[in-house]
Design a protein that fits this description.
287 residues, D-Maltodextrin-Binding Protein, domain 2, Alpha-Beta Plaits, five-stranded mixed beta sheet, 15 strands, flat, binds adenosine-5'-triphosphate, binds zinc ion
């Protein structure tokens, strides 16, 4: 057994913490009890976990202090470090948006000319302004950006938004999206062959978990004369499974539906004669 380990950096606490640790758990990686909250290890996978501020994660991965990391694309692109993005993880979804006081009219990007913009993302905002040939005054602040216009510190903000309720509560409205973001897995660019192999194992597990989450297992009863129509609606991994029911003239049909098509398909299946439709979550999906 080689002693090669993979070191992963994840957020210490905050919006990405729960989902990042849950993902490792779903990948079958048990973490030892976190006592000092600085780092921990797994006993059943060669993984060491560092808990850091999200802002520091790209730098630690570039330097090789951590081999891989989980961080929002917003932070990754703002920090602009030399690391590679391996996989989008489907959580921590948000957008970096420009918001202005709700009672003002918005006249497009050019109306930002000469304005004071409060943001924690000076690099991304200046890139956006340059792309639109706009010159504005960027005020970098590290937290509670949304209160800046209210206290006279700025005219507009560029801040992270998910539901928009924080903006609303502060009398602001979202007018432009600079960037759409979600959590991603990043890697150091100089991993050894053995580390890359470990990373592949981890990546296979992550993809297996992601696929399962995107799909549902559905079972339904169908009168035999309607089987053909029902089956034509179902994708399945190869084709749906059809089993005879105890009552003659009926079959049980099993298949896998993706989240994206789920509600439409359920309606169509009902109309086509399917009854007693059961929908079951899938834990892992290996294709
Ligand atoms: P840290 O102490 O690690 O620096 P933080 O306060 O900078 O934490 P959080 O607020 O925990 O960061 O957000 C972490 C990440 O979660 C963000 O960088 C972003 O990728 C993502 N995120 C998702 N939705 C939102 C949102 N509505 N507001 C802010 N961040 C969000
Ligand atoms: Zn942060």
């Amino acid at each position: 057994m080689s002693a090669v380990k993979l070191k992963i950096a994840i957020q210490k606490s905050g919006r990405l913490y729960e989902d990042s640790t849950a993902l490792l758990k779903e990948c079958g990686i048990d973490l030892r009890n976190v006592k000092d909250r600085l780092k921990t290890e797994s006993d059943n996978f060669p993984l060491e976990v560092f808990f850091l501020r999200d802002d520091d994660i790209p730098q630690y991965v570039e330097d090789g202090v951590a081999d891989i990391g989980i961080v929002g694309e917003n932070v990754l692109l703002e920090k602009n470090k030399k690391v590679s993005t391996i996989e989008k993880l489907g959580f921590g979804k948000c957008r970096l948006s420009i918001a202005i006081p709700r009672n003002q009219e918005y006249g497009g990007a050019e109306s930002l000319e000469g304005k004071r913009i409060a943001t924690s993302y000076p690099f991304l905002v200046s890139q956006y302004l340059a792309n639109h040939n706009v010159t504005a005054d960027i005020h970098e602040i590290s937290g509670s950006v949304e209160i800046a216009p209210g206290i006279g510190l700025a005219d507009v903000v560029a801040d992270l938004v998910s539901s928009g309720s924080t903006l609303f509560m502060n009398g602001l409205k979202e007018v432009e999206t600079i960037l759409k973001s979600e959590a991603v897995l990043i890697q150091n660019n100089q991993l050894s062959e053995e580390q890359l192999q470990l990373l592949n194992t981890l990546l296979f597990r992550i993809r297996t978990v992601k696929k399962a989450k995107k799909n549902k297992y559905v079972l339904m009863n169908v009168p035999n004369e309607k089987l053909e129509t029902v089956v034509s609606l179902l994708p399945g991994m190869r084709s749906p499974t059809i089993l005879p029911l105890a009552s003659t003239g009926w079959s049980s049909v099993h298949s896998v539906l993706s989240e994206a098509e789920f509600w439409d398909k359920i309606e169509q299946l009902k109309e086509a004669g399917a009854e007693g439709i059961l929908v079951v979550p899938i834990e892992k999906m290996v294709l």
